[in-house]
C-alpha cells in the first residue's frame, strides 16, 4: 500500500497436489535461537569515538558458516515414546537411540555387527560408526565395548564416515590453469587467473558488471570482458571464454547441449567428470544438480505425490519433460529446506543469508537424500511425516531476487527460472471465480483491482497451507502491509502485491516499489514506519516486529501478469542502498 496498483492469478498447468492426512502439523525441531543483536544506545552528536566504539569489527560478528552434520538430532520428546528394555525407540518404522553424548540419533540395524549404525542426514544409507550399549543404562555409545568413559558429555565425532551419495566436488581441482610451468601474476585487490591463452584479473569480489582485464607480459592491463548478471566471466576473443568463480576457484564453464545445462569442466588431463550446475540461492549463485541417476525411488514417489504416473522417464537424459521438470523443482526446493531446517547454524542465520549458507553446505556435504526420501515417501503415501522433518514450504527452498538501485524487479528473469518463483498450481473453482471477477474490473479502477488482487493471493496462499495473519493495515485498510502469513515451520512472510504490465515484444515490464519518503516499499525503514502506526498493534504487526528483531522476516512480492498468473518470489531490497 502507499503504492501503484497490484495483481494476481495461478497457473493451470499443474495438477493439484494430494492433501496428506494424519498429524502433519507437528514440529518437533528445537526452537530457533534468536539472532545475536547489537544493543542500541543513544549516541552523542559529534562523538565519532563513541560511534567507533559501538560498531563491531568483522571479527566480532556472529559466524554463520555451515557446520558438518554429524547426526540426525531429535530433541527429547514424549512423541518418541518410552525406550525398550535395551534403550531402543521405534516411531513410524524408524529407530532412534539415546547416546551418552546427550544426542538422540536415527539408526539402522547392522546385521554384520549385530548392533546399530547411525544414519546421517547427508547420506543415503547408514554410514556412521557401530553403536554399542552402555552397560547398566538405556544409553548407547560410539565407543568400542569396554572403553566407555561413563561421564562423556561432549558429542564425539563420527568416525569412518562413508556412503555419501553425491561425489566429492573438489573445486580447486577444476581451477583453470595456464600453460605447464606458468606462474599466475599477483595484483593487490585483484583476483588473477591464467588460461592457456593468457593471464586475466578482475575485482576480488567478482561482482556482476565488474570488468575483466587481460594482463600482458609487461604487467599492463586492458579491458577484455566482463562479469555478467549470472556471474559468468566472459572473455572476448577466447574460444573457451566462459568462466565462473566458485567457492574461491575460477573454473571453466561448458554447456551440455543434450540437456541444455551449464557444467563445470576440468582440464582434460585431470580426468574429472563435468559437474552439472543450476541456480541456487539467487541469480549468479550456482550449485550442483541433484544426483538424478541414483534417486529414482524418490523421483517416483514425488511424481505420485504430484498426480503423475510414477515412471516419467529418466531426468538425467536429454531435456526434462514438463512433469519431470516440476517434480525436480519440488525435490530441489524440499532438499534445500531440509538442509536449513536440520542445520542449526543455517536455521538461526539472518533470512537474507540463509540461501548462501545452503549453497555452501551443498558444495561441502551434498544433498540430504535420506531425509528427502523419508519426507517425500510420507507425503506421497498421505502419512504423517517422520519425527523431526518439516512439512514442505517452497518459499524456504527458493532463491532470492535482488532489486535494482531504483527498487525494481526484472519479471522476465523471474519467469524464466523456476528456482526464483513459487511453483505454479492448478486453480480451484473458487480461485477461478476470483480471477474472473478481477478480469471484469475496469483497468483504471486501481483500488478495486488492488483489493481483488490481494484477495486472490490470500485465497491461493491459504489453499497452499499457509496461515494468514490478520491486521497489518492502517488508514481504514488503505495503507500498510498487503498480507502477512506464516509457513508450516512458522517462518514469517511479508507480501507486497503488484500488477505487471506487458512491454514491447510481449515481454513483461519491471515491477517497481513505490518510494514512500525516504524509503522504498519493503525496505526496513518503510516496514518500521508502518509498525509505528496502528498496523503495528495488530497480530500481523506484532509478528513482523518480532521477525524483524530476529532478522528472520522473509519479504515476498506477488506480481500478477495481465493474463492473471500469480508470481510469488522472495526479494532482497539491499541493492537500493549499495
From TrEMBL:
CDD domains documented for this protein: PoNe
Polar residues bias locations: 1-16
Region of interest called Disordered, as start-end residue ranges on this chain: 1-40
Stated name of the protein: Uncharacterized protein
Superkingdom in the source lineage: Bacteria
Amino acid at each position: 500500500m502507499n503504492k501503484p496498483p497490484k495483481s494476481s492469478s495461478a497457473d493451470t498447468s499443474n495438477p493439484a497436489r494430494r492433501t496428506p492426512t494424519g498429524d502433519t502439523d507437528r514440529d518437533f525441531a528445537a526452537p530457533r535461537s534468536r539472532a545475536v543483536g547489537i544493543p542500541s544506545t543513544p549516541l552523542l552528536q559529534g562523538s565519532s569515538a563513541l560511534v567507533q566504539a559501538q560498531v563491531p569489527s568483522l571479527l566480532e560478528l556472529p559466524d554463520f558458516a555451515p557446520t558438518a552434520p554429524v547426526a540426525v538430532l531429535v530433541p527429547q520428546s514424549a512423541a518418541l515414546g518410552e525406550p525398550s528394555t535395551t534403550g531402543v525407540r521405534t516411531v513410524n518404522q524408524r529407530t532412534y537411540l539415546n547416546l551418552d553424548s546427550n544426542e538422540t540419533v536415527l539408526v539402522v540395524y547392522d546385521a554384520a555387527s549385530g548392533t546399530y549404525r547411525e544414519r546421517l542426514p547427508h547420506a543415503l544409507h547408514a554410514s556412521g560408526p557401530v553403536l554399542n550399549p552402555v552397560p547398566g543404562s538405556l544409553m548407547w555409545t560410539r565407543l568400542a565395548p569396554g572403553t566407555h568413559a561413563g561421564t562423556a558429555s561432549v558429542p564425539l565425532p563420527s568416525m569412518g564416515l562413508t556412503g555419501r551419495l553425491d561425489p566429492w566436488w573438489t573445486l580447486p581441482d577444476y581451477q583453470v590453469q595456464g600453460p605447464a610451468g606458468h606462474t599466475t601474476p599477483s595484483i593487490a585487490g585483484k583476483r588473477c587467473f591464467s588460461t592457456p591463452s593468457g593471464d586475466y584479473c578482475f575485482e576480488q569480489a567478482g561482482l556482476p558488471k565488474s570488468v575483466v582485464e587481460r594482463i600482458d607480459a609487461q604487467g599492463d592491463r586492458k579491458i577484455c570482458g566482463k562479469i555478467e548478471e549470472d556471474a559468468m566471466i566472459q572473455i572476448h576473443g577466447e574460444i573457451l571464454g566462459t568462466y565462473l568463480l566458485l567457492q574461491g576457484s575460477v573454473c571453466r564453464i561448458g554447456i551440455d547441449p543434450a540437456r541444455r545445462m551449464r557444467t563445470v569442466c576440468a582440464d582434460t588431463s585431470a580426468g574429472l567428470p563435468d559437474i552439472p550446475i543450476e541456480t541456487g540461492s539467487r541469480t549468479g549463485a550456482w550449485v550442483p544438480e541433484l544426483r538424478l541417476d541414483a534417486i529414482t525411488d524418490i523421483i517416483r514417489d514425488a511424481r505420485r505425490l504430484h498426480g503423475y504416473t510414477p515412471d516419467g522417464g529418466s531426468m538425467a537424459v536429454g531435456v526434462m519433460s514438463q512433469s519431470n521438470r516440476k517434480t525436480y523443482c519440488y525435490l530441489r526446493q524440499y532438499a534445500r529446506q531440509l538442509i536449513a531446517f536440520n542445520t542449526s547454524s543455517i536455521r538461526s542465520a539472518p533470512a537474507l543469508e540463509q540461501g548462501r549458507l545452503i549453497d555452501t553446505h551443498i558444495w561441502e556435504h551434498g544433498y540430504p537424500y535420506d531425509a528427502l526420501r523419508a519426507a517425500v515417501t510420507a507425503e506421497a503415501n498421505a502419512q504423517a511425516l517422520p519425527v523431526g522433518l518439516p512439512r514442505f514450504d517452497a518459499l524456504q527452498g527458493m532463491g532470492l531476487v535482488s532489486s535494482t538501485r531504483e527498487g525494481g524487479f526484472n519479471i522476465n528473469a523471474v519467469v524464466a527460472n523456476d528456482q526464483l518463483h513459487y511453483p505454479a498450481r492448478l486453480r480451484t473453482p473458487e480461485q477461478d471465480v476470483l480471477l474472473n471477477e478481477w478480469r471484469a474490473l475496469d483497468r483504471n479502477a486501481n483500488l478495486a483491482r488492488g483489493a481483488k488482487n490481494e484477495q486472490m493471493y490470500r485465497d491461493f496462499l491459504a489453499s497452499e497451507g499457509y496461515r494468514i495473519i490478520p491486521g497489518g493495515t492502517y488508514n481504514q485498510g488503505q495503507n500498510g502491509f498487503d498480507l502477512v502469513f506464516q509457513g508450516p515451520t512458522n517462518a514469517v512472510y511479508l507480501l507486497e502485491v503488484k500488477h505487471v504490465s506487458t512491454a514491447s515484444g510481449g515481454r513483461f515490464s519491471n515491477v517497481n516499489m513505490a518510494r514512500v519518503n525516504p524509503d522504498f516499499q519493503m525496505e526496513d525503514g518503510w516496514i518500521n514506519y508502518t509498525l509505528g502506526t496502528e498496523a503495528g498493534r495488530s497480530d500481523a504487526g506484532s509478528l513482523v516486529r518480532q521477525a524483524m528483531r530476529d532478522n528472520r522476516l522473509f519479504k515476498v512480492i506477488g506480481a500478477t501478469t495481465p493474463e492473471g498468473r500469480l508470481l510469488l518470489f522472495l526479494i532482497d531490497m539491499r541493492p537500493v542502498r549499495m
